[in-house]
């Protein structure tokens, strides 16, 4: 085992001991004998049986058969979740064949950052993760289920479902993916078209034609953003069946993998001899495996929020320092957009998860001795699913990469480190993704600040040709409590155009940037955020800022005496930003969101000053 990986794991175990111990005690106490539904009073249970009929009804009446919850994020507007339309009947059939029953317990919202990017609805994106977690809990709270299948895939949906399901950690849970869409127009061509449009050299109609060539069909977007990072994490956590993550929706393997997941979870309940609750699967070592996977593949920066929150839901405490230290030890083994020209389908064709996990295990970078939904040991995930005469089986995956330009070896990596760095300085703490920057790009930038309070302000300044100079764009009041921490991916295009014009350009923000973002050196997730006393609220136009990824520093180069004289700028514009498109109804959630480094969730803390009772805090 790599020494750094081992050391980080040990300190996570130590840091988490009290919280994890309490969590596991609670999960053990919740286990019962017999199906959960038969602990309900007759009147209560009758409500749950009212619509069942025939064999299903007889099975639900039986004293020893499992009932599996289906939590679905299906909608027919979004490509990634459209694929789930026909899953429930398929799952019910497979669970019945395995000796149980399955019921759709709840639907959760599934919004798309691609649709809301740069729009007011994006302010609800991160908050939707908490709503999804709560919706998952409500669906499972009927307490009639012995296991669960989670049908969710994209940016906030999968993490939110996991955060909710982990509150029922005594149940076995399997994540059921839908797979990526087939490759359309290349990501590089799409990015170039956006730049041409930003410069006024491409019409709206021409750009829309390009975008529609990029996104066409069912499945997740093909670039390696947060959605596909989620799927990689799910497999490394041991919550997918081996090799399930990146099989296309129309691939003949997709249906058998779904039915296999349904059959498998039916056999993992406490009613059989292979009990495997999710609280045993999502362990400290499994979380470290997921972190390593993100770093080794140049995954989404959003995982510095999502993995923190998911781990916290399981009583595990991880920090940005853990990410940073692991990044120094974990080499970059994958190049797909935005870290390279290919996409997630190229990764799958190169051998996919089986090859990646084999390489990481060979390099001593993953914990093999973990529990998974496929059984004990991560070595099971070096196998790949195969369909032979209609029968699904798992066989050893390729011994090495089938495309070395996409997946390389641990001994000859694309880069010595994972490329995710933590920055610290007087401006606070932040993360920066250097793996997505072009070869030879600057990782140490010093330039005057140009301050904006909204994305629109920056776009207007660009269109008015007021940004043709060296600069570091500061977009503040974009943090969790300010406006829900929207992604600012739309700003990458104008800033990339400025780089093409020969200027030195960077970005500093307390907002987020998509996992698909590259080219622009960006210190993101700055904490404390400007609204909560962060120094970002004192930055003025013309102040020199230094971003130094190599040194891990983020500094406002203004004297302490000068800063003491300055007042914090008030966010007077936020009243307008917090209304419209329903944003006003989320004020209570937004108010209680933790900082970025703590996962930016409102679910795992208590606001004691509003109570007269001394309830224990989550951090006690």
Summarize the structure in words:
By secondary structure, this protein is α/β, with parallel strands linked by helices. The protein has 3 domains: 3-184 and 218-390, no CATH class; 420-574, 3-Layer(bba) Sandwich (Glucose Oxidase, domain 1), CATH 3.50.30.80; 576-610, no CATH class. It is built from 24 helices and 16 strands. It has an 8-stranded mixed sheet with strand order 9-10-14-13-12-11-15-16. A 4-stranded parallel sheet has the order 2-1-3-4, sandwiched between helices. It has a two-stranded antiparallel sheet with strand order 5-6. It starts with a helix and ends in a 29-residue tail after the last helix.
N-end to C-end Cα span: 33 Å
Mean pLDDT across residues: 92
Q: What radius of gyration results from the CA coordinates?
A: 24 Å
Counting structural domains, the number is 3
Enumerate the spans where pLDDT stays under 50 for 5 or more consecutive residues.
606-617
Strand order of the largest sheet: 9-10-14-13-12-11-15-16
Largest sheet: 8 strands, mixed
H/I helix tally: 24
User: Care to count the β-strands?
Assistant: 16
Shape: globular
What level of helicity do the residues show?
25-40%
Output the structural class: alpha/beta
β-strand amount: 5-15%
Attribute tags:
13% strand, alpha/beta, 8-stranded mixed beta sheet, single chain, 4-stranded parallel beta sheet, 620 residues, Glucose Oxidase, domain 1
SSE blueprint and pairings:
Elements (H helix, E strand, L loop, with lengths): L2 H28 L11 H8 L4 H8 L5 E6 L6 H4 L4 H11 L3 E7 L5 H4 L8 H16 L6 E5 L5 H9 L7 E3 L11 H12 L5 H11 L11 H11 L17 H13 L11 H4 L2 H14 L5 H11 L6 H10 L14 H6 L2 H11 L8 E2 L2 E2 L6 E6 L2 E6 L23 E6 L2 E6 L10 E9 L2 H9 L7 E5 L4 H4 L8 H9 L4 E5 L12 E6 L16 E5 L4 E4 L3 H6 L8 H4 L9 H5 L29
Parallel strand pairs: 1-2, 1-3, 3-4, 11-12, 12-13, 13-14
Antiparallel strand pairs: 5-6, 7-8, 9-10, 10-14, 11-15, 15-16
Helix pairs in contact: 1-14, 1-16, 5-12, 7-8, 8-15, 9-10, 9-21, 11-14
């Amino acid at each position: 085992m790599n020494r750094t990986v081992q050391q980080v794991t040990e300190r996570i175990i130590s840091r988490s001991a009290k919280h994890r111990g309490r969590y596991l005690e609670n999960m053990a106490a919740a286990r019962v004998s017999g199906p959960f539904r038969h602990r309900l009073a007759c009147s209560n249970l009758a409500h749950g049986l009212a619509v069942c009929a025939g064999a299903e009804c007889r099975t639900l009446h039986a004293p020893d058969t499992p009932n599996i919850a289906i939590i679905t994020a299906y909608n027919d507007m979004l490509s990634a979740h459209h694929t789930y339309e026909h899953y429930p009947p398929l799952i019910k059939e497979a669970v019945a064949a395995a000796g149980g029953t399955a019921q759709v317990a709840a639907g959760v919202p599934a919004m798309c950052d691609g649709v809301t990017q740069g729009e007011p609805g994006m302010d609800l994106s991160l908050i939707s993760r908490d709503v999804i977690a709560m919706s998952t809990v409500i669906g499972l709270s009927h307490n009639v289920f012995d296991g669960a299948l989670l049908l969710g895939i994209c940016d906030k949906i999968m993490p939110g479902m996991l955060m909710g399901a982990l509150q029922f950690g005594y149940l076995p849970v399997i994540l059921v993916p839908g797979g990526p869409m087939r490759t359309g127009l290349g990501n590089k061509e799409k990015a170039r078209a956006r730049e041409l449009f930003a410069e006024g050299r491409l019409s709206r109609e021409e750009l829309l034609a390009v975008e529609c060539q990029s996104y066409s069909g069912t499945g997740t977007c093909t670039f390696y953003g947060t959605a596909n990072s989620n799927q990689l994490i799910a497999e490394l956590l041991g919550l997918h069946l081996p090799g399930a993550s990146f099989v296309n929706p129309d691939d003949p393997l997709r249906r058998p993998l779904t039915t296999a997941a349904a059959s498998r979870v039916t056999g993992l309940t406490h009613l059989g001899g292979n009990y495997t609750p999710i609280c045993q699967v999502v362990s400290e070592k499994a979380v470290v495996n997921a972190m390593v996977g993100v770093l080794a593949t140049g995954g989404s920066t959003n995982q510095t929020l999502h993995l923190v929150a998911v781990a916290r839901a399981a009583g595990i405490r991880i920090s940005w320092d853990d990410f940073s230290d692991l990044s120094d030890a974990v080499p970059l083994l994958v190049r797909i957009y935005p870290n390279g020209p290919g996409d997630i389908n190229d990764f799958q064709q190169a051998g996919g998860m089986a090859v990646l996990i084999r390489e990481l295990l060979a390099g001593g970078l993953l914990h093999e001795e973990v529990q998974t939904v496929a059984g004990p040991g991560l070595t099971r995930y070096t196998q790949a699913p195969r369909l032979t005469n209609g029968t699904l089986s798992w066989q050893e995956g390729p011994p090495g990469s089938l495309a070395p330009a996409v997946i390389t070896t641990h001994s000859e990596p694309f880069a010595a480190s994972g490329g995710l760095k933590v920055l610290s300085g007087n401006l606070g703490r932040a993360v920066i993704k250097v793996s997505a920057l072009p070869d030879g790009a600057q990782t140490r930038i010093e330039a005057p600040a140009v301050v904006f309070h909204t994305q629109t302000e920056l776009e207007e300044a660009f269109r008015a040709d007021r940004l043709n100079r060296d600069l570091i764009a500061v977009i503040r009041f974009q943090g969790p409590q300010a406006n829900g921490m929207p992604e600012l991916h739309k700003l990458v295009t104008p800033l990339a155009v400025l780089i093409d014009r020969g200027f030195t350009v960077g970005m500093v923000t307390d907002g987020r940037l998509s996992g698909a973002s590259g080219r622009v050196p960006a210190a993101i997730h700055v904490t404390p955020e400007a609204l909560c006393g962060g120094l970002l609220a004192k930055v003025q136009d013309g102040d020199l800022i230094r971003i130094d990824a190599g040194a891990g520093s983020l500094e406002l180069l203004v004297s302490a005496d000068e800063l003491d004289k300055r007042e914090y700028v008030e966010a007077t514009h936020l009243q307008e930003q917090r209304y419209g498109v329903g944003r006003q109804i989320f004020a209570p959630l937004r108010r209680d969101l933790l900082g970025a480094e703590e996962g930016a969730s409102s679910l795992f803390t208590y606001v004691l000053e509003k109570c007269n009772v001394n309830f224990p805090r989550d951090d006690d």
